[in-house]
TrEMBL record:
Name of the molecule in the record: NAD(P)-dependent dehydrogenase (Short-subunit alcohol dehydrogenase family)
Family: Belongs to the short-chain dehydrogenases/reductases (SDR) family.
Source species: Prosthecobacter fusiformis
Alphabetical list of Pfam families matching this protein: adh_short_C2
Annotated PANTHER family: EG:BACR7A4.14 PROTEIN-RELATED, ZGC:101858
Residues annotated as signal peptide: none
Gene3D superfamilies assigned: NAD(P)-binding Rossmann-like Domain
Length: 265
């Protein structure tokens, strides 16, 4: 198994991509700290994975001291910490016209500052195990859509942090820092957002080829499969890298004139 005996802390792992990563990590031999905001959902994940393989912590990442409490829980429960996955994120719309300072700062606090503080809190333990950090970004980090302005900026900042710390921490602590930028993924929250936008229940079954050349969008399990490589020893000393996980070359891609449009992903 590719992650045998590793202990991995995964934020935002009660649902969606984080949940899929937690499940895949345990399947590969790891034990995990599940984090989220919903007690019932986190408890369900732990029950599915088994108490010997998982423990949960419910708290807003931006609460003072939360990162250290997550690290302490991993050490208290499993005795070590080999990796953290910064997956938790605030994914809401906003543009140049309707984004105020408070909203912008909240986005940065959740999507950029919280991952930084968790890396900071975990660094001593990760140094002991020559561990790794995997940041979950977004293809929107490269520029983003008009109505995803603050979100895109927060993910762009996360990408810069990955590049910077990927170099610094490998040199100083032997800790690898990498990032994957998922494209459009069919998570529970994404399905809910699209229904709130007025799309039909099965909106994902018939998508314009411009947005889904394969005929479908990505599954959380496919992101989790990619995450395992960066968390496993097989990725060697590779650090400071960002991998985009999407099915089309989104940068510089021009939609055909007759393409259909759908709400932002």
């Amino acid at each position: 198994m590719r992650l045998e005996n590793k202990v991995i802390l995964i934020t935002g792992s009660a649902t969606g991509i984080g949940k899929a990563i937690a499940k895949r990590c345990v399947a590969e031999g790891a034990r995990v700290v599940v984090h989220g905001l919903e007690v019932d959902l986190a408890a369900a994940v732990v029950a599915e994975l088994g108490a010997a393989n998982a423990v949960s912590h419910i708290e807003d990442l931006t609460s003072e001291g939360c990162p250290q409490r997550l690290v302490d829980l991993a050490i208290k429960t499993f005795g070590r910490l080999d990796a953290i996955v910064n997956n938790a994120a605030m994914v809401t719309q906003g543009n140049i016209h309707n984004t105020d300072a408070a909203y912008f700062m909240k986005m940065i606090s959740v999507n950029t500052l919280a991952p930084f503080l968790l890396i900071q809190a975990a660094l001593e333990e990760l140094s002991k195990t020559r561990g790794s950090v995997l940041n979950i970004g977004s293809v929107n980090a490269w520029s983003g859509e008009p109505d995803l302005l603050p979100y895109s900026i927060s993910k762009g900042a996360l990408m810069t942090m990955t590049r910077n710390l990927g170099d610094t921490l490998m040199r100083e602590n032997g800790v690898r820092v990498n990032q994957i930028n998922p494209g459009w993924v069919l998570t529970e929250n994404e399905a809910r957002r699209k229904r709130e936008h007025g799309l039909r229940e099965d909106w994902y079954a018939d998508l314009p080829k411009m947005y889904a050349p394969s005929g479908r969008i990505l599954w959380p399990e496919e992101i989790a499969a990619a995450a395992v490589y960066w968390l496993a020893d097989e990725s060697g000393p590779v650090s400071g890298q960002v991998m985009d996980l999407e099915q089309h070359p989104f940068m510089g891609r021009n939609p055909p004139k007759d393409s259909s449009t759908i709400p932002s992903k």
